Hints:
Layout: H1 34-76, H2 79-97, H3 103-123, E1 126-129, E2 141-147, E3 156-161, E4 163-166, E5 169-172, E6 174-179
Parallel strand pairs: 2-6
Antiparallel strand pairs: 1-4, 3-6, 4-5
Amino acid sequence: xxxxxxxxxxxxxxxxxxxxxxxxxxxxxxxxxxxxxxxxxxxxxxxxxxxxxxxxxxxxxxxxxxxxxxxxxxxxxxxxxxxxxxxxxxxxxxxxxxxxxxxxxxxxxxxxxxxxxxxxxxxxxxxxxxxxxxxxxxxxxxxxxxxxxxxxxxxxxxxxxxxxxxxxxxxxxxxxxxxxxxx
Length: 183
């Protein structure tokens, strides 16, 4: 047997990295079959569908949580105000529980309770509308009658019921009497 210095797998005419000189009759450019392409497309479609379903579910969860948050905000919006008003109610209860028939002590208790209410109103930016001498403003005042007066026409001359605003928004308009125009 004769020993050859060359590697039996490497053709000396072609070299180790070259293509074989003769092409294989069955070797054609490999193209995926229609079934493989369909399977790949179905997998990609399923991935997109799953991502879409996840995004849709996440959107529904966000919407549901937002509705719950708004509901809770509506339900408990006055909680701080209510807690402050409890002290006022306690004062009124204590005033009614007193057995003395002294008008002065009753009046001083009412004044203290009114101060408590005014303090709570101030804390929550609730202010009175007391428009005596002002021109009638239909956004803040509700005229319920007219009076003869030396004041110019449509000037508030008397307040029947005070109005209130919350952060400059009218909660209740003041019920007022306005001056008739001089004839």
